[in-house]
Amino acid sequence: MSDGMSKATLPGLAQIRDEIDRLDADIQALISARARCAQQVALVKQAEDPEATVFYRPEREAQVLQKVMARNEGPLHPEEMARLFREIMSACLALEHPLRIAFLGPNGTFTQTAALKHFGHSVQTVPLNTIDEVFREVEAGAVNYGVVPVENTTEGIVTHTADSFLTSSARIIGEVELRIHHHLLVAEGTRVESISRIYSHQQSLAQCRKWLDAHFPKAERVAVSSNAEAARRIKGEWHSAAIAGETAADMYGLVKRHECIEDNPSNTTRFLIIGTESVSPSGEDKTSIVVTMKRNQAGALHDILAPFAARGINLTRIESRPSKNDIWTYVFFIDFEGHQDDPRVREVMSELDPVVSDVKVLGSYPRAVL
Ligand SMILES: O=C(O)C(=O)C[C@]1(C(=O)O)C=C[C@@H](O)C=C1
């Protein structure tokens, strides 16, 4: 016992369980009281803006989770405690207004896991076939928000997501990071010696390249549209395996033959939450912009970065992509710390204006808490 309680001073099992029952009743009453507060909040929000009531408030949710973690005294880990509150808030928000969240499907993808990590389990997740469709459904208002992958620590930027922002009116309203663990999955009864084909998404095959070279050098690697699709395919193929995550394994009733086979143990993917509203400052925010350079402009990158450096604003990502409009012109995707309403950020934006051909704010949003 870590707190020095010896066996002799421990209360009996029945007594401890009585105490747990009492605490559970208290916790339950408090959660119900909290849920009633959320119902009142919903009425206030509706009264303030009856035409376009915005129930989901990412900045407030981030603050609630930050407070939970800051005041946590153990023995539960701060992130574990925040995850519990994540679910309580998710249930409270569902009472106010149930959310529909589109994600890059099918069911069982890492993107769905990211969506549930961000919004909690009281939302309805809607699988869509492509990143384009997620953007379209969000813009059309057919769903409340969307979740798309944007970068991976091993494989870099998800170009399709980045390029979608060039033409879409959707805004970034949040981010979520997920540690990606890949497993080699087989159908019940498949013998490892008989595996001649391995299905997965192209990015996952790349993230497990060294492991595959070492363990299955002869197996054919087949890229499919998602890890969940790979898992679905091997259900009836006794000579095949799939590389996918925990959720897909559970969903399709597969056996994990080898666990955590990713080459980089800190393999992490960052996802963006997209919507149509702008988010108020939370105090711990990031802003994403896309800057179109002028053609053949000497020192262009320096001109873009100098205003940030002058104000000590930390850049968290900078990525260049070909602009879709003109050959040999480029756009820069830049993420930095701060909110677009911060005076320092406003100054940077007004300094950028004359030195670039275009600058578009994709959104300011709370830094990922979990
Ligand atoms: O504070 C609010 O605006 C609420 O609606 C309450 C609450 C919560 O449960 O704490 C629920 C949903 C919002 O996204 C943010 C917070």
Automatic annotation (TrEMBL):
CDD domains: ACT_CM-PDT, PBP2_PDT_1
Domain Chorismate mutase: 7-100
EC number in record: 4.2.1.51, 5.4.99.5
Keywords on record: Amino-acid biosynthesis, Aromatic amino acid biosynthesis, Cytoplasm, Isomerase, Lyase, Multifunctional enzyme, Phenylalanine biosynthesis
Transmembrane segments: none
Record carries keyword S-adenosyl-L-methionine: no
One record GO biological process: chorismate metabolic process
Gene Ontology cellular-component annotations: cytoplasm
Residue span, Prephenate dehydratase domain: 100-276
GO molecular function list: chorismate mutase activity; prephenate dehydratase activity
Lyase keyword on record: yes
UniProt pathway annotation: Metabolic intermediate biosynthesis; prephenate biosynthesis; prephenate from chorismate: step 1/1; Amino-acid biosynthesis; L-phenylalanine biosynthesis; phenylpyruvate from prephenate: step 1/1
Compartment annotation: Cytoplasm
Sites marked Essential for prephenate dehydratase activity: T269
Residue intervals of the ACT domain: 289-366
Catalytic activity: prephenate + H(+) = 3-phenylpyruvate + CO2 + H2O; chorismate = prephenate
Alphabetical list of Pfam families matching this protein: ACT (PF01842), CM_2 (PF01817), PDT (PF00800)
Function: Catalyzes the Claisen rearrangement of chorismate to prephenate and the decarboxylation/dehydration of prephenate to phenylpyruvate.
Full protein name: Bifunctional chorismate mutase/prephenate dehydratase
UniProt organism field: Amnimonas aquatica
